[in-house]
Amino acid sequence: MAYVVTEACIKCKYMDCVEVCPVDCFYEGETMVVINPNECIDCGVCEPECPAEAILPDTEGGLEKWMELNATYSAQWPNITIKGETPDDADSHKGEDGKFDKYFSANPGKGS
Ligand code: SF4
Ligand code: SF4
Hints:
Pfam family, one: DUF3470
Region (Disordered): 81-112
Radius of gyration: 12 Å
Oligomer: single chain
Distance between the termini: 26 Å
Cofactor: [4Fe-4S] cluster; [3Fe-4S] cluster
Protein name: Ferredoxin
Bound molecules: iron/sulfur cluster
Function: Ferredoxins are iron-sulfur proteins that transfer electrons in a wide variety of metabolic reactions.
Number of domains: 1
Protein backbone atom coordinates (compact mmCIF):
# COMPACT_ATOMS: atom_id res chain seq x y z
CA MET A 1 0.00 0.00 0.00
CA ALA A 2 1.06 3.60 -0.59
CA TYR A 3 -0.38 7.08 -0.51
CA VAL A 4 -1.38 8.76 -3.78
CA VAL A 5 -1.51 12.41 -4.89
CA THR A 6 -4.72 13.20 -6.75
CA GLU A 7 -6.27 15.92 -8.92
CA ALA A 8 -6.74 18.43 -6.09
CA CYS A 9 -2.97 19.00 -6.08
CA ILE A 10 -2.90 20.32 -9.64
CA LYS A 11 -2.08 24.04 -9.74
CA CYS A 12 -1.95 24.17 -5.92
CA LYS A 13 1.50 22.95 -5.05
CA TYR A 14 1.43 24.28 -1.49
CA MET A 15 4.10 21.64 -0.86
CA ASP A 16 3.46 21.28 2.85
CA CYS A 17 3.61 17.55 2.16
CA VAL A 18 7.14 17.25 0.83
CA GLU A 19 8.91 18.43 3.96
CA VAL A 20 7.30 15.94 6.32
CA CYS A 21 7.93 12.76 4.32
CA PRO A 22 10.50 10.67 6.23
CA VAL A 23 11.67 8.87 3.10
CA ASP A 24 11.62 11.84 0.68
CA CYS A 25 9.46 10.12 -1.90
CA PHE A 26 7.76 13.15 -3.51
CA TYR A 27 8.58 14.11 -7.11
CA GLU A 28 7.79 17.42 -8.76
CA GLY A 29 6.08 18.06 -12.06
CA GLU A 30 5.31 21.45 -13.56
CA THR A 31 1.80 21.63 -12.08
CA MET A 32 1.65 18.98 -9.32
CA VAL A 33 3.68 16.58 -7.20
CA VAL A 34 3.44 12.78 -7.06
CA ILE A 35 4.48 10.04 -4.64
CA ASN A 36 6.70 7.12 -5.66
CA PRO A 37 4.61 4.09 -4.61
CA ASN A 38 7.71 1.89 -4.30
CA GLU A 39 9.37 4.26 -1.85
CA CYS A 40 6.33 5.33 0.23
CA ILE A 41 6.35 3.50 3.58
CA ASP A 42 2.67 4.19 4.17
CA CYS A 43 3.25 6.25 7.31
CA GLY A 44 0.37 8.63 6.53
CA VAL A 45 2.20 11.70 7.87
CA CYS A 46 1.72 13.70 4.67
CA GLU A 47 -2.04 13.23 4.36
CA PRO A 48 -3.18 15.73 7.02
CA GLU A 49 -0.49 18.22 5.96
CA CYS A 50 -2.06 18.81 2.56
CA PRO A 51 -4.43 21.81 2.70
CA ALA A 52 -6.01 20.73 -0.59
CA GLU A 53 -6.81 17.21 0.70
CA ALA A 54 -5.11 15.87 -2.40
CA ILE A 55 -3.33 12.93 -0.72
CA LEU A 56 -5.30 9.71 -0.27
CA PRO A 57 -4.44 6.11 0.67
CA ASP A 58 -4.48 3.83 -2.36
CA THR A 59 -6.91 1.55 -0.54
CA GLU A 60 -9.67 4.05 -1.35
CA GLY A 61 -11.60 2.92 -4.39
CA GLY A 62 -11.48 4.55 -7.80
CA LEU A 63 -7.94 5.86 -7.67
CA GLU A 64 -6.50 3.71 -10.47
CA LYS A 65 -5.84 6.67 -12.77
CA TRP A 66 -3.95 8.49 -10.05
CA MET A 67 -2.02 5.42 -8.90
CA GLU A 68 -0.79 4.95 -12.43
CA LEU A 69 0.05 8.63 -12.82
CA ASN A 70 2.00 8.70 -9.54
CA ALA A 71 3.96 5.57 -10.52
CA THR A 72 4.70 6.83 -14.04
CA TYR A 73 5.79 10.35 -13.26
CA SER A 74 7.66 9.66 -10.02
CA ALA A 75 10.06 7.72 -12.25
CA GLN A 76 10.52 10.72 -14.56
CA TRP A 77 10.29 13.89 -12.45
CA PRO A 78 12.93 15.24 -10.02
CA ASN A 79 12.80 14.53 -6.31
CA ILE A 80 11.53 17.37 -4.09
CA THR A 81 12.15 17.59 -0.34
CA ILE A 82 12.06 21.31 0.34
CA LYS A 83 8.91 23.40 0.08
CA GLY A 84 9.18 25.84 -2.82
CA GLU A 85 7.33 29.07 -3.33
CA THR A 86 3.58 28.60 -3.60
CA PRO A 87 2.26 30.11 -6.85
CA ASP A 88 0.29 33.34 -6.35
CA ASP A 89 -2.79 31.81 -7.95
CA ALA A 90 -2.78 28.59 -5.88
CA ASP A 91 -5.77 29.53 -3.74
CA SER A 92 -7.88 30.50 -6.73
CA HIS A 93 -7.62 26.95 -8.10
CA LYS A 94 -8.44 25.22 -4.82
CA GLY A 95 -11.49 23.00 -5.20
CA GLU A 96 -11.79 23.69 -8.94
CA ASP A 97 -13.20 20.83 -11.06
CA GLY A 98 -11.59 19.31 -14.15
CA LYS A 99 -8.08 20.47 -13.35
CA PHE A 100 -6.42 17.47 -14.97
CA ASP A 101 -7.85 18.26 -18.40
CA LYS A 102 -7.20 21.96 -18.04
CA TYR A 103 -3.78 22.13 -16.47
CA PHE A 104 -1.95 18.82 -16.12
CA SER A 105 1.54 18.94 -17.59
CA ALA A 106 3.87 16.00 -18.09
CA ASN A 107 6.84 18.38 -17.93
CA PRO A 108 9.12 18.04 -14.92
CA GLY A 109 9.31 20.66 -12.19
CA LYS A 110 12.51 22.06 -10.76
CA GLY A 111 12.87 19.69 -7.82
CA SER A 112 14.86 20.53 -4.69
S1 SF4 B 1 0.44 19.84 0.03
FE1 SF4 B 1 -1.13 18.82 -1.20
S2 SF4 B 1 -1.62 20.27 -2.86
FE2 SF4 B 1 0.32 20.81 -1.98
S3 SF4 B 1 1.91 19.86 -3.17
FE3 SF4 B 1 1.45 18.50 -1.47
S4 SF4 B 1 -0.13 17.12 -2.26
FE4 SF4 B 1 -0.04 18.87 -3.63
S1 SF4 C 1 2.67 8.26 3.51
FE1 SF4 C 1 4.64 8.73 4.53
S2 SF4 C 1 6.17 7.79 3.25
FE2 SF4 C 1 4.32 7.91 2.03
S3 SF4 C 1 4.48 9.84 0.90
FE3 SF4 C 1 3.35 10.27 2.79
S4 SF4 C 1 4.90 10.94 4.27
FE4 SF4 C 1 5.98 9.92 2.57
